[in-house]
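Please predict the structure of the following assembly.
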Amino acid sequence: MKTTIKEKFQIKPESPVLIEGLPGLGMVGRIATRYLAKHLKAEKFALLYSPHFPYYVIVNKKGNARLLRGEFHYWKNPRGRDLILFTGDSQAQTIEGQYEIAETILDFAKKHKVDTIVTLGGYRKEAGETPQVIATATDTAILNKALNADASPSPSGNPIVGTAGLLIGMAKFKNIPALCLLGETRGYLPDPKAAKSILQVLQKMLEISVDLDHLDEEIVKSDKILEKMRQIEARRETYAKKMRKGEEDKTTYIS
Amino acid sequence: MKTTIKEKFQIKPESPVLIEGLPGLGMVGRIATRYLAKHLKAEKFALLYSPHFPYYVIVNKKGNARLLRGEFHYWKNPRGRDLILFTGDSQAQTIEGQYEIAETILDFAKKHKVDTIVTLGGYRKEAGETPQVIATATDTAILNKALNADASPSPSGNPIVGTAGLLIGMAKFKNIPALCLLGETRGYLPDPKAAKSILQVLQKMLEISVDLDHLDEEIVKSDKILEKMRQIEARRETYAKKMRKGEEDKTTYIS
Amino acid sequence: MKTTIKEKFQIKPESPVLIEGLPGLGMVGRIATRYLAKHLKAEKFALLYSPHFPYYVIVNKKGNARLLRGEFHYWKNPRGRDLILFTGDSQAQTIEGQYEIAETILDFAKKHKVDTIVTLGGYRKEAGETPQVIATATDTAILNKALNADASPSPSGNPIVGTAGLLIGMAKFKNIPALCLLGETRGYLPDPKAAKSILQVLQKMLEISVDLDHLDEEIVKSDKILEKMRQIEARRETYAKKMRKGEEDKTTYIS
Amino acid sequence: MKTTIKEKFQIKPESPVLIEGLPGLGMVGRIATRYLAKHLKAEKFALLYSPHFPYYVIVNKKGNARLLRGEFHYWKNPRGRDLILFTGDSQAQTIEGQYEIAETILDFAKKHKVDTIVTLGGYRKEAGETPQVIATATDTAILNKALNADASPSPSGNPIVGTAGLLIGMAKFKNIPALCLLGETRGYLPDPKAAKSILQVLQKMLEISVDLDHLDEEIVKSDKILEKMRQIEARRETYAKKMRKGEEDKTTYIS
């Protein structure tokens, strides 16, 4: 088995934008891309399979099992540029697999005349109430569009790991302008807040409008989990402090 | 060396069922498949070799060494559908190897006009006296057959790792209906009880009859080992509790 | 770069025996093969290179650097069957590499009409003054020759790891009878004593005669190192015992 | 994606010298090669990309992201042999990748009629004020040139890891004389002092002249960091000694 894309039906987009968001830091890219696909009612039209994904299948709600895969969704934009949205279950598990999957996606993009790529992900940072969106790109023209839509330029030296990174790096060889948007996130929990920040930049840039209310519900839930974890952490630290104190007392006492 | 199957003699099955059980959780799939092959007196007719198996040979009772391999057995069913039984020494050791071996098995199945695949394995759970059998499938028709034979539907989100999983995931591309049966098992010891549960479902589904008495002997042996391990574990815990008690006393005393 | 063999000059052996000994447990196979090559004054006639060897070069006494490699030596036997001796710097570093290198060696053996293969290695065991030699083979005929030359049959289930194992496992596909001889060794130090035991079996089997006196010098040296290590270990244990005693006293005192 | 070299423009060198220095021990090879390229005003004329580099992109000062890569620079020497300077972001991440990249560089060297290769790196040693330069080579003729330029011969058995090593090891197959120069370094910090020692040998050997003053600035900076680290280390050790003393007192007291 090679990395392959199986098309369920043919689409005829006109110079569409490809948006990519796979699982990664804070699941930011995946949450944003899935949210877009769902709320735009984009249609799943192609599936990407690869021997570089983890070697298991997952059972769906109907009780059927399927391979891990990537999914391409197509949204016919009535008022502007069409979108192809790519998300999936997993990143490639090996270095060579990462490059192979990125190249397969780019060939597919080229075939469908994609003329802009936007990859989404997380950026590790203790973010404030409104996480910032960090942008980097293949060239200054597309980068400026993101900056005009309230993104901030990425600090230099910043590494962007995985498919979100390799797609921009390799897009240059296919002459497709590509942009990467990263939402600030602590990263260890799914972070809908960072995803929302990204979607706000995207909406402005692409002149589309998506109702983000359902994402707000996710944010409320996620904030509650976070708060609970903070309380547990605080209790754990108080306890650890006490323990250390006891140890120190003991040491002092004995010596 | 590539993954290859060497046929010792040609078989002419009519739309046979392929049953797969490689080593895995609780060795459930392997125990069940080997038991079937032995008690049906199925004939070993083909061997699968792969550079993705571990790189050692094993010595048999006659003192001869052989590569790790998979083994296909053929059973000519006098009263119904023929069986091809696949088991072996090991799973593939790399991600890409897992996909390659699953694909090689499927091509071989296609060549022999297999029209149903059943993969067997373990499902990690503290099981009761009679372990349940969890089922998932490529489609609802074949899944229902298993449910009618007393299997339970798999919870959604359940990952099925290794060849048992990938075969169902990839069977879809070859248009072969495939079913996975997982016996509940604690998983860290060979578990003939879980294998028996699976065989009972299989017998009902495939309308075959296999004497399971010898498996009962295995179960008695395995229960004894388990009981011994529980006793050791209990003693270990009592001892650890005492130790912790001592430590706490000491801490309390000092601080 | 692929795994390749570069021949420095052409040899015309008549149904030679191929003896293999790469680094492994106790370096037994390598010590035995190198000793044979040196004391028979066998000629280095071919080199095996592979991208599966570790990625460094080593500097020789003249200050020149060279890739890691395998070396084939040829010995024209004036009174019997010719020998091809294979040894080298390293085993392959990946599973797939192990299979690839074993296959390359076998193709080379076939080309040179090798009709017997003997692979050498170590067998982990606390050995007595004269380590035993454990034998396993592709078939009973060749195994019996080893048993008649004072080797013992391998226990069943014994795994033979690496090139020494895979060569026997894969020799069957090329119809070359193959034998594996393993010298008992503790395994964590180069073990010339185990190598000597193997050479004694080999001499008898192949009806050749090699002066093993120089190996005895190695054994004396190695025994001295071993003795020193035992003394250090004994001191370390005495000290550790004292420490534990102190800890126990302390615990008792406090609680 | 395969390992490939993209040429930005064609060069016509006459039997040039290829100098290689990738990241490694003390970053010695990379610092030296980059310094040469910068101060000779060599032109970047070709880029090497590979799926064996880490799977991320890095953001440059303009905010644009690019793949990790190797860079070839060309310097037209007005008074002698031209130079091709190769450096880059990273070494290959897998064994097979290391061999593949080395081979790709050598094919490129052959194409451009390179007739001497010099690879640069670090040699782990507690070096004095002027680190020595250790040399090894494919043959004695080129090795002697380095020794005449104040390099010291490498001790035998010394392993040279990575591209600097494999290039010399594989250069022999392409009939290109190759030399490796290693600057003594503690290795855990970028070490411009070791790089300077190498450049002094190179200048003498190649009869070129490069102003090393800017490197001296780097050395002053690096010495300051080193001094600070030594102070921290010294304080840490004093503290650890005190702690151990306390523990020993306590033990003595109790038992």
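The first strand of chain B starts at residue 4 and ends at 7. Chain B touches chain A through 35 residues (CB under 8 Å).
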